[in-house]
Amino acid sequence: MTRETARGGPYQHLDGLPFALAVIRDSRIVHANPALLTLLGVEPAEVLGTPLVHLLEGREPQALPQETVWRTPRGALPVELTLSESGGDLYVLVRDASGRVCQRQLLQRLAALGASLIRLHSEDAVLRHAFQGLAELRIPHGYLVPEGERVRLAHVDVGGGAAPLVAPSGDWCDLLRDAWREGLAYQELPSGDGGVLGPDWAALAGPPTRGGGVPRALCLRIETDGAPRALLALRSERVGEDDLAPWRMFAAQVSAALDAARTIGTLWRRNTALSSLNRLAAAAATALKPQDLFEPGGREVASLMGSRTVILLLRAEGADALELAWHQGVSPGAEHRFQRIAHAGSMSARVMEEGVPRVVDVAEFADPVRSFLRASGQVCVVLVPLQVRSHMVGTIALAFDAPRVLTDLERETLQAMGAHFAATIETHRLLRELRERAEELTRLHSELADTQRQLVERERLAALGELSAVVAHEVRNPLGAIFNALATLRRFQEPASPALTLVGILSEEAHRLNRLVDDLLDFARPSSPQPQPVPLPPLLEEAVNTATVGQPGLRVEWALEPDVPPLPVDARMMRQVFLNLALNAVQAMPQGGTLRIHARRCQGQPGATVEFTDTGPGVPPGLHERLFEPFFTTKATGTGLGLAIVRRTLRAHGGNISIESPPAGGATFRVQLPLELPSMPSRPPPR
């Protein structure tokens, strides 16, 4: 470089940027151009002839520029020095580097912004943070989302704050197409009014730049899952062609942060859905009845989907209808609209046929459901079928006051929740049916056992009856001969003959044997009762008087309540029943005692109860049932058929007999008879 060329114009600008020039000879400044004087803020006389040591600070000439900081009246100034030597002169080229430092700081902050995005956990948070960072860097920007043949401006900030997220859409321009295809597009905007962006995107151009520089447009492609998603358009005079690599890196960081946030969001939603399913499964496992699942399960579904109105409808048994099982968010005055809904042709029926959750617009419902939903401000309803295998149990309806689209995860989760509901309801229904069938089988088994026992008893009694008939027939003829012989013997004996005592003993035993034959015949040939309404007092009085005649030490107490009506019984057979019971009580008190007769109406069931209570020694507990077995007796002279005939006669009348015998002594034989006829006047009890 020569002195002349150093003084002339060829060095006044380099690449369009002003520079300052000084020529140093013998360590003193011999030339300084106006740019250097302006940079230093001094007059020419103050510079020429002075040493430039404080500017060079011992630097040796070199071909490459060096960055340093000069102290000037304006303060510390970043500069770029280029030193060269020619003919003993040192040429100093000084360039203002403050813009480059600012640019480097801008790119550093941009890199920090991109690196900070990866820690955010939602896509909205990533975009908001990126937009806020660009606004703090004072870079006008817009976020454009392709929608078919148009592009929607989802966010814009040109220096006056963010615009509403819902903005008009526009056509594709060359810059946007290039960026969508190549990943990055760059172009100058000399006009400052949108230029190559086209009229639809003039808002991105913003106001003219303050520094008078040339504004440039940079468009970056944002990707998710390896596919283009949106475009980030930028406008700044500080964006140079040499700075495209950092901006491309920033676009990659935004894309990576969106991918990470999407993955985190998907995992979080899956975890939330899984947690809801686990809680629902736990509630279903501990539910003692389906109603125990309705409230916790319904609230779990509502919380997962963010719905305030939830209605659970179940199919009515034996009817083509849906019934309201549980609800949340339905006012008490509106419950009746959902208490019972016809199933055929309803939206629930359609969803049950499809077997998958679906979103239904309110307009698709029929009145009165449609009117209720509209009055409540709802715009759509998510219907979830409750299905287990091929059996449809019901539906869950979730109402929303804004349009709703089900994601695949939501659809899968709702279907699984519906399956839990359906399985619990169906399991309890099957358990109820199984329990009812088990109870029915138990009842049938008991009836069968009773029938078999009765059949065995009847066969045994029939065999005994046949044997008794044979024995009675074979014994009666010899008895007739014995009675005839005894009568003859009495005629031939003198009144004072000692043989008369023996004849009396024979006569007494013959009569006892004859009574046994009568009992055997009664037992062998039971007759069917011919019931007629008969008052109880006469039957009881006649039977008790017959049994107690000739018993001076016996006292009879009567407790016949007046509200006992006539009973539909066979009078002859029932008289024999009462006589046998009275005789049994008298025989239990050979030394005398008290016989109490108590008749009353049964409580809680139609019928009457008659009790025979004696003050004898009582009956051991182990013998209560055996007393009614044929031929079982505790008396030395008994036949063991009296009580067996009593029970058989009572059963023929639809009644029964039981025994109570306290440890202190005494026994009560309680007779229960059915009562079917209306009340009739009865005889007053005997005094």
What report would you give on this structure?
The chain has 687 residues and is of the alpha+beta class. The strands form six sheets. It has a six-stranded antiparallel beta sheet. Strand 23 (593-601) and strand 24 form a beta hairpin. Helix 15 (571-587) runs antiparallel to helix 16 (642-652). The radius of gyration is 58 Å and the shape is rod-shaped. The termini are far apart. The model is unreliable at 1-17, 163-167, 192-196 and 677-687 (pLDDT under 50).
Structural class: alpha+beta
- Give the termini distance in whole angstroms: 161 Å
pLDDT average, as an integer?
Answer: 79
The rough form would be described as rod-shaped
Instruction: Report the count of strand segments.
Output: 26
Number of helices: 16
The low-pLDDT segments are: 1-17, 163-167, 192-196, 677-687
Q: How do the strands of the widest beta sheet line up side by side?
A: 10-9-8-13-12-11
* Range of helix content: 40-55%
**How is the main sheet built?**
6 strands, antiparallel
Estimate the strand proportion.
15-25%
Q: How large, in whole angstroms, is the Cα Rg? A: 58 Å
State the main characteristics.
single chain, 687 residues, alpha+beta, six-stranded antiparallel β-sheet, 16 helices, 26 strands, disordered C terminus
TL;DR of this structure?
The protein is α+β, with helices and mostly antiparallel strands and 687 residues long. The chain has 16 helices and 26 strands.
Task: Please specify the SSE layout and strand pairing.
Elements: H1 3-7, E1 13-14, E2 17-18, E3 20-25, E4 28-32, H2 34-40, H3 44-47, H4 53-56, E5 62-72, E6 75-86, E7 89-96, H5 98-116, H6 123-136, E8 141-147, E9 150-157, E10 169-170, H7 174-182, E11 184-188, E12 216-224, E13 227-236, H8 244-286, H9 291-305, E14 309-315, E15 321-328, E16 340-342, H10 347-354, E17 358-361, H11 369-375, E18 380-388, E19 391-400, H12 408-492, H13 499-524, E20 532-534, H14 536-548, E21 554-560, E22 567-569, H15 571-587, E23 593-601, E24 608-614, H16 642-652, E25 656-660, E26 667-673
Parallel strand pairs: 21-23
Antiparallel strand pairs: 1-2, 3-4, 3-7, 5-6, 6-7, 8-9, 8-13, 9-10, 11-12, 12-13, 14-15, 14-19, 15-16, 17-18, 18-19, 20-22, 23-24, 24-26, 25-26
